[in-house]
Inverse folding.
């Protein structure tokens, strides 16, 4: 009987040379590591689960003699946690004698849940100040926060071909002393659907307690492959038959109303306006059934909605295929932007309220227009007085580029003043406490300005 050690860990590649498939991605990673400087962008390894992203990151670290610091989904990835774990690691050297430390953030496309609030921005801040290499790993590149995409370099991992998986399975069988016919290895490789981890797990499950494997021994290890919404949208525009298309929809976990929004959001891939009009007609008919489902709580109608939208849009597309990127529903983006604007406005009112000692409701209802006029006259002063960021200043100026420029200039001025002060202290040999002006006694303070009150008005 063979041991029950996890074979995916036991046979995890130790070097990039052991990685199966994805040659161009592996080469891109190696070139990045070989030429890495603190100015280099972090990598984002993305692709389906089980195709070697995490293994490649660890293999690269091993090849480069880099220490690994990993932060994954099991951690509560708030801004504070990310700053504490990855932040400190990104600016300090290795204690083990390794040449560098590489920060690996797994499941980077899951930085949107409540537990991760502030996480994406924290990672961007860490990237900006990091003196160590950083690798992010994601299953869905389009699910990655927009601010992370701007500051990273993408590396795509593709599903492995069955003929690439089979030799690795043969090697494992040899190492474990298991006799396994080539046709059985080929069957496992095919059923894995490009997922090396699933293939190894299937082989392990079938091999427990056996010295020889036959075709009938692998059915219990078959992969439970679920289609994603991306697979379904691609199938609608592809050349699948009606039965095959509906089968893909059964494997997708999303409900018909969500599927409808995804298909609608990608109708721009239709070959012409006439096809798009027919597609919209099918979606509108499906939407009627979805509405009746919710009104009557009769969920049997969902199957009619699904058939109408999928088969109708597929017929309109005529197997044209998708020549571009599958995008998430546009309305989701609008809702997200609306929530973000509301959060920025709330934080801005909180700052103004704290600095002016005025209730937020009063500021919002009575003084916001007057404050806007004052900020427009001297936006740099407003940034200094209220510690505004570019998003908050944009609410006043309605010009994103101008707001960003003002914030950058104020930050540059503050940095220059700090350098000048530091140089002055070094020249005189005095500490900061000795050079700072003495604080005025309480009775000498201006009676008409309370502590902490802004002087903008």
């Amino acid at each position: 009987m063979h041991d029950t050690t996890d074979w995916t860990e036991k046979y995890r590649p130790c070097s990039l040379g052991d990685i199966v498939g994805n040659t161009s991605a592996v080469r891109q990673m190696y070139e990045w590591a070989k030429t890495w400087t603190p100015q280099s962008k972090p990598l984002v390894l993305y692709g389906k689960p089980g195709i070697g992203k995490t293994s490649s990151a660890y293999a690269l670290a091993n090849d480069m003699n880099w220490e690994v610091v990993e932060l994954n989904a099991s951690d509560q990835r708030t801004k504070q946690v990310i700053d504490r774990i990855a932040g400190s690691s990104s600016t300090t050297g290795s204690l083990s004698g390794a040449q560098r430390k590489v920060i690996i953030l797994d499941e980077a496309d899951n930085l949107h849940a409540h537990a991760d609030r502030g996480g994406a921005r924290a990672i961007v801040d860490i990237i900006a100040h990091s003196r160590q290499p950083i690798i992010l790993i994601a299953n869905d590149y389009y699910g990655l926060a927009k601010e992370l995409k701007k500051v990273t370099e993408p590396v795509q991992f593709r599903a492995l071909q069955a003929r690439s998986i089979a030799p690795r399975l043969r090697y494992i069988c040899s190492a474990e002393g298991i006799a396994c016919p080539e046709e059985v290895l080929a069957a496992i490789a095919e059923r894995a659907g490009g997922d090396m981890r699933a293939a190894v797990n299937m082989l392990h499950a079938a091999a427990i307690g056996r010295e020889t494997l036959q075709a009938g021994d692998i059915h219990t290890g078959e992969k439970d492959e679920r289609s994603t919404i991306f697979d379904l949208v691609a199938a609608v525009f592809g050349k699948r038959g009606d039965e095959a298309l509906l089968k893909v929809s059964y494997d997708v976990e999303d409900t018909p109303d969500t599927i409808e929004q995804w298909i609608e959001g990608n109708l721009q891939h239709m070959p012409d306006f006439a096809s798009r009009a027919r597609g919209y007609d099918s979606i509108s008919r499906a939407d009627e059934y979805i509405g009746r489902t919710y009104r009557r709580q009769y969920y049997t109608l969902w199957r009619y909605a699904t058939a109408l939208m999928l088969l109708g849009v597929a017929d309109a597309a005529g197997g044209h295929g998708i020549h571009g990127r599958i995008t998430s529903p546009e309305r989701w983006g609008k809702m997200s932007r609306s929530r973000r604007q509301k959060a920025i406005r709330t934080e801005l009112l909180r700052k103004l309220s704290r600095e002016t000692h005025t209730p937020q409701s009063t500021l919002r209802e009575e003084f916001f227009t007057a404050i806007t006029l004052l900020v427009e006259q001297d936006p740099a002063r407003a940034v200094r007085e209220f510690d505004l960021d570019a998003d908050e200043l944009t609410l006043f100026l309605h010009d994103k580029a101008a707001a960003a420029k003002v914030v950058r200039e104020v930050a540059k001025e503050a940095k220059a003043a700090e350098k000048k002060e530091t140089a002055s202290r070094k020249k005189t040999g005095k500490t900061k406490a000795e050079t700072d002006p003495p604080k005025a006694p309480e009775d000498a303070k201006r009676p008409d300005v309370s502590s902490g009150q802004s002087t903008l008005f």
Summary: The chain has four domains: 22-156, 162-221, 229-317, 332-428. DSSP finds 20 helices and five strands in the chain. Confidence is low (pLDDT under 50) at residues 73-78, 112-118, 220-224, 440-457. The two ends are 81 Å apart (CA to CA).
